[in-house]
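Still learning. Any example?
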Amino acid sequence: MEKIKKLGKYRNIILVLMDIFCIALAYYLGVVIITDTVFKLEPYYVKRLTQTILVSGIVYQIVFHITKRYKNIIRYETGKDYLMYFVACMASSIIISIVRKMFHIFMLERTKLILLSGVIISLMMISYRIIIRYILVNDIVNKERKQKEDKKNLLIIGAGNAANEIIKTIHTRMTETYNIVGIIDDNKKRLNYNVSGVRIIGNRNDIVKICKENDIDLIFFSIANIDNENKKQILNICQQTKAKVRILPGMREIIKDKKLFENLRDVEIEDILGRDPIKLDNNNIETIIKDKTILVTGAGGSIGSELCRQIIKYNPEKLVMLDIYENGLYDIEVELKSKYSKVKIEAVIASVRDKKRLENIFEKYNPYLVFHAAAHKHVPLMEYSPLEAIKNNVFGTYNVVNTCDKFNVKRFILISTDKAVNPTNIMGATKRLCEMIVQAKNKVSKTEFVAVRFGNVLGSNGSVVPLFKKQISEGGPVTVTHKEITRFFMTIPEAVELILQAITYANGGEIFVLDMGEPVKIYDLATSLIRLSGYVPNQDIEIKITGLRPGEKLYEELLMGEEGLQKTAHDKIFVAEPMDITIDDITAKLDKLTKLLDKENVDFEHIQSTVKEIVPTYKEQKK
């Protein structure tokens, strides 16, 4: 077969020579048939036969080139092409007969001999081309059969337009990569119908069986306009297979980029949480943001950057993004400036610990709203560096609060955490003290100070989900601190949407609590991610229990028992009862922390006992 490939560049020369050979052999056979003379011909016939072959070769070549017979790709020839060969051969025979009579050329004299030879020539030319085509096609089939062993067996869920586009993309550009087994669709009327040549072979209840019978490697979830509950149910079924699942995002993302195949992504854990989309009162949000100067601290972080992305959609006059981490700040600055050229965007490098720097920034920009997302949030790290948590979280917040008061900011919003509720770690205790600062300062300031508290956000810096994905990509093990540990989870965009909605209800002094839904077992979350990545938990990828880390709780709480809970106009936003604390109380607490920071070589137990005095709900753990 390799020799045939090497001869490919000489194909036309070879075909011409083979056609001339067919012409010579056909005339010889014609003479034999008509004269009944085998092998030995009289000199009379030899001379005329030679002349006839010469003239015929010229005529056939002229006709074949005019009809572009040598432009055909032999492996793709069909019955129509073979018919054209026959027509070209018979036309050549007629032309030869006319030439012989008109010019009295010394040739074979019988017209029927020339026509008979034309038929034989056409049969011979068609036959050897069919043989070549068979050899070439057979070679391709063998290659495809060999390649099929390396192809991934694919099952597509959904028989809509998205599936049609994906199938066409695969058939056009990726036949060597995917073998599409079939389509899953819950519409019973569509069963056994085809989408771009691929059959609908069952509904969601057949997924496990089909995957097992056909050794499915990949499942493409191609339904974009599906409600979260049904998506969750189907993805839970997919988890019972060994196939890796890829999914189309929502319609909003697809509209931005119409290349559907490129939009397919790995299943995220938020896909299987099944949370309903947030309904917002966009008019109220726009009223407090439009044409105003908005400042966000910690703007380069996961929550801060998403705050910037959503705030800018409501057309502020200016968005000031403040962070001490230059790389994260640079990334969000470049992203937003490329999309929102009409909004003034200022990226400012500064630390919330630097009071003088903050005052200069507030004097320059005069912000109307301040979202305070800057904080150290990583629980175990802050257990090992507790004084840094106090400096950054407590005194950083205190600096921003006092600066807002000094420059008459309309509203300050603290981004808090569920770890502030009955904290068992230094980080949670510092955030609880931040909430106390906010409520105390609100009583003596014209600025409206509020806090918004929520749990873990998926995909944030330090979240378990990116860690699990990294561990799975490396072959495991996936590490879970305790088999029973649970957490509340929310997506970053969902959390930020609720933050923006919550501030429209603020009058000052509130701690807004976001409804985080049902708590999720981290072990179950790890299991789901492993299965959706196409692996079997504790078989292909080990789940390793490592033990609770310093300051870590089995269960997080969103409210303290004594706080109570009040409803707001939004069913996912609640308000905790205010604390009875004054600014003098806060000043006294901060004085104790200042003395603590001034000491040298202070031990962890001393820090714990001091924080316990300041935050009574702190339940310190022995290190």
About this structure: Residues 251-258 have pLDDT under 50 and may be disordered. Residues 2-147 form one domain. The radius of gyration is 39 Å.
